[in-house]
TrEMBL record:
Recorded family membership: Belongs to the peptidase C56 family.
UniProt-listed Pfam families: DJ-1_PfpI (PF01965)
NCBIfam families reported in the protein's UniProt record: PfpI
Organism ancestry: Bacteria, Bacillati, Actinomycetota, Actinomycetes, Kitasatosporales
Name by which UniProt lists this protein: DJ-1/PfpI family protein
InterPro entries, per database record: C56_PfpI-like, Class_I_gatase-like, DJ-1/PfpI
CDD domains per UniProt: GATase1_PfpI_1
Domain DJ-1/PfpI: from-to ranges: 4-179
Top-rank taxon, per record: Bacteria
PANTHER family: DJ-1 PROTEIN, DJ-1_THIJ_PFPI FAMILY PROTEIN
Organism: Streptomyces katsurahamanus
Length: 185
């Protein structure tokens, strides 16, 4: 039986932070499903830096179909969870179905990989209390307010939770996550 990994996301997720782990895990032989608020074609975005801007800019990115709606997800069918960033976590953290899914993964101590703004979802379920994490650097105060110890590093491993700052850190993030997934999965 193929090991399944779930990616939870929505519109305005960072294209690279969804598709890089999706393809990397497929390459490793995992079955990967993308869940969103509804089964539909999702519109991802590209965040980049432009001279003269104080923060990142946002441009339309790839589109990709969601395999499942959050209401259709059985967390017990999945070994691990991926939480991409972008703007999606800002509104997804209000989704009660997604919070149930995430809580199930954390309660079972299953491997979870989060990146960029993804930890906003983990914070919404109280999953950062007492943990060491990284995130997009502008979220340092949010991570501390959620009870986490923020570290500015490519990848931070705290038990089954692997976090990363943003898409430039993908190699370190997936390398560490695959170690955890192989050990626990």
């Amino acid at each position: 039986m193929t090991t399944k990994v779930l990616i939870v996301t929505g519109d305005a997720a960072e294209s690279l932070e969804v598709l890089y782990p999706y393809q990397r895990l497929l390459e490793e032989g995992y079955e990967v499903h993308i869940a969103a608020p509804a089964r539909k074609k999702l519109q991802f975005v590209v965040h980049d830096f432009e001279p003269g801007f104080d923060t990142y800019t946002e441009k339309p990115g790839y589109t990709w179909p969601a395999d499942l709606a959050f209401s259709e997800v059985d967390p017990g069918q999945y070994t691990a969870l991926i939480i991409p960033g972008g703007r999606a976590p800002e509104y997804l953290r209000n989704d009660p179905e997604l919070r149930k899914i995430m809580k199930a993964f954390f309660d079972a101590d299953k491997p979870v990989a989060q990146i960029c703004h993804g930890p906003l979802l983990t914070a919404a379920i109280g999953g950062l209390e007492g943990r060491r994490v990284t995130a997009y650097p502008a979220l340092e105060l949010d991570m501390q307010a959620a009870g986490a110890s923020f570290q500015d590093a490519e990848a931070v491993v705290d038990g089954a939770l692997v976090s990363s700052r943003a898409w430039p850190d993908h190699p370190a993030w997936m390398r560490e996550f695959l170690k955890v997934l192989r050990a626990k999965g």
